[in-house]
Amino acid sequence: MELRKRELLLVWAFSLFVSVLAQSSSGQDNSGSGSDSGQLPTGLEYDDDVDIQEVAAGLNFLKNFGYLGIMKKSSHKSPQEYRIAVSRMQEYANIPVTGRLDNNTLTQMKRPRCGLPDIIDVNSMKRRKKRYQLAGSKWGKKDLSYRIVNYTPDLAQHQVQDAIARALQAWSDHTPLTFRPTTSSNADIQIKFARGSHGDGYPFDGRGGTLAHAYFPGPGIGGDAHFDDGERFTHRSVTGTNLFLVAAHELGHSLGLGHSDVESALMAPYYQGYTTSSVIQPDDIRGIQQLYGRRPPNQPTNPRPDPRPNPRPNPRPNPRPNPDPVPPRRPGQEPPQRPECNQQFQAALFIDPHLYLFQGKTVWRVNENGQVDNGWPKQVSVIFTGFNRVVDAIYRKADGTAVVFSGNQYYEYLGQRLKRGFPKTVRSLGLGVDRLDAAVVWARNGKTYFFSGTQYWRFDDKRKRPDSGYPRPIEGNWRGIPAAPAAAFANGEGKTYFIKGNQYYRFDDQNVRADTGFPRYFTVDWLRCDTSRVFGKATGEEGAGNNAEASRLPNIFVNMLTSLCVLLYVLHIYN
Predict the structure, then answer these.
(1) Is the pLDDT score of 484 beyond 70?
(2) Pairing mode, strands 354-359 and 362-366
């Protein structure tokens, strides 16, 4: 009897080990058979849990951006050929190479990007180092003219002119090229905004997806750049689609550069988001100088468009000037840091086009150009009458009511006046906690979300109670967002932002996960503060979120280790 018991326990422990291992590995090597995929080719591998329509869209991506075009012409591709095409796309996008259309790859394919193919030279993909591509054509002159044919309604004309001029200047800073604006229809580079089909056979797809496309140097349409007016273009702002950044990329094509598989390069195909740092990277410089050479010393700069009207003092003609006048300083003396750059904000609220940032009893109002408006910061009591407390969290209801949390109480203000019956306790909301870290209205469903510690609640403002099934853990639901975020806000562009310390995370509402490349420094990207002296920066801190994520032990090994320990324990007892 004792021997039988011992055998059963050993079998149980070993079975547990094998079953956990099998469960952890399930789905890793499965391929879509294609039997239920309609017109999908049987040789294309994809995970079982992905939507067939997304797989079809992924196949079109491979065709449209040159990955299947490098194969031999035939009506049928072998599984190996599809695997090579997917692997090359994954290598180019700097994501894990699996050779199959997994969720990670399909998500990457949905990112906003340039409309030009990634592969323009078959030989360029054969065991080459990561670097730029040359289109095979360039301009035979150094002085080029450009014409802005029409304008987007998203921006004032002077803002469009400024963005285009700065984008061209970014390239001329490193080459002997000069660019001059003109109204002539014979301009070398014609720049226009369009929607859908616009006469060149490459229709735009509206917001998201393809942002723009351009043509390599040559006669006729050669050198022209077209921008999808279905996007919401912005000027000197991290919100929306920044026109300067898109234009700098597209005009690189107009000068003869193809896409680069260096992830940080301007000529990488995917939209990376606007920052105040230099957009031209070493890989871009090497590519453009191979075409046109280096910029001669003392060469005059490009002619600029007519000065823009600006009712504000201290205009900002360069990408990264200090917005406020500073007193002369001695050589070697560091410039003074602006007060807002030394803050770690505790709450945030976006009311287009302004971002309100709260720290202590003070509030800053930041415009779309990353500048603190004249007359700000102010005491919170100025905008909310009688409120002389620290703001922990804040959000805005659909009727314009501002809901302000401070300690264990919350207040509702309509305009500057406190509503009757307030303040009330946070517990009266039915959350079961005394205070909140952050609050935000999620644009995807219009519901309000409260965050406290490691948990969050979905709140129905109409019924004035949390939805059933809450609270839930932040981890695993708001993927990539840390516990206890200090502030949260949404800008209506499909992104939700979370601040913690002086770093922020950008959450993609569509893909329901934090974007790659985050966290980044909030005051640098949103307030144009000096990177070298950013408040809260510590050695090794940058990119810590990504490194921490990458360093987590995969679940499969955790499960294996647990089962192995059980097995060893049983063996120890019965030996």
Answers:
(1) yes
(2) antiparallel
Residue 191's H or E segment, with its range, is strand 189-194
Lowest average pLDDT, out of 111-115, 121-125, 280-284, 293-297, goes to 121-125
Q: Which of 67-76, 312-321, 376-385, 505-514 has the lowest mean pLDDT?
A: 312-321
Instruction: Please check whether residues 457 and 407 belong to one and the same domain.
Output: yes
pTM, 2 dp = 0.52
Residue 315 lies in a domain: no
Residue 165 falls inside a structural domain: yes
Based on its alpha-carbon atoms, the radius of gyration of the chain, rounded to whole angstroms, reads: 28
The H or E element that residue 288 is part of is helix 282-292
For residue 91, what are the contacts with CB-CB under 8 A and spacing of at least 6? 97, 261
Q: SS in 3 state form for 231-244? A: CCEECCCCCCEEHH
Residues 404 and 461 in one domain: yes
Cα 173–276–144 angle (5° rounding)?
30
Cβ density class 461-495: b for 16+ within 10 Å, e for less? beeeebeeebbeebeeebebbbbebbbbbbbebbb
If one counts the domains in the chain, the total is 4
Active site residue 231: no
Catalytic residue among 250, 340, 368, 493: 250
Q: DSSP states of 18-81 as a string?
A: HHHHHHHHTTSS----STTSTTS-TT--B-TTS-HHHHHHHHHHHHHTTTTTTSPS-S---HHH
Q: In this structure, are strands 455-460 and 438-441 parallel, antiparallel, or unpaired?
A: unpaired
| One domain, residues 162 and 263 | yes
Say if residue 488 is in the same domain as residue 345. yes
How many helices and strands (H and E) does the chain possess? 11, 27
- Same domain (yes/no): 523, 566: no
Residue 480 forms part of a structural domain = yes
- Enumerate residues 6+ apart whose C-beta is below 8 A from 26: none
Say yes or no: 361 and 482 in one domain.
yes
Give the pLDDT confidence score for residue 13 in this predicted structure: 53
19 with 106, same domain?
no
Cβ–Cβ under 8 Å, residues 117 and 64: yes
- Structural domain including 364 reads 340-542
- Gap between the Cα atoms of 379 and 358, Å rounded: 10
Q: Summarize pLDDT for 110-125 with one digit per residue, the tens.
A: 999 999 998 865 444 4
DSSP secondary structure string for all residues of 117-132: -S---GGGGSSPPS--
- In 3D space, the residue among 127, 163, 111 whose CA is nearest the CA of residue 268 turns out to be 111
Residue 162 phi, psi dihedral angles, 5° rounding = -65, -45
Q: Can you tell me the mean pLDDT for 21-36? A: 38
Is there a single domain that holds both residue 167 and residue 217?
yes
Using left for φ > 0, alpha for ψ between -120 and 50, and beta otherwise, residue 33 falls in alpha
Is residue 84 domain-resident? yes
Residue 526's alpha-carbon distances to 95, 242, 243, 431, in angstroms, are 27, 13, 16, 32
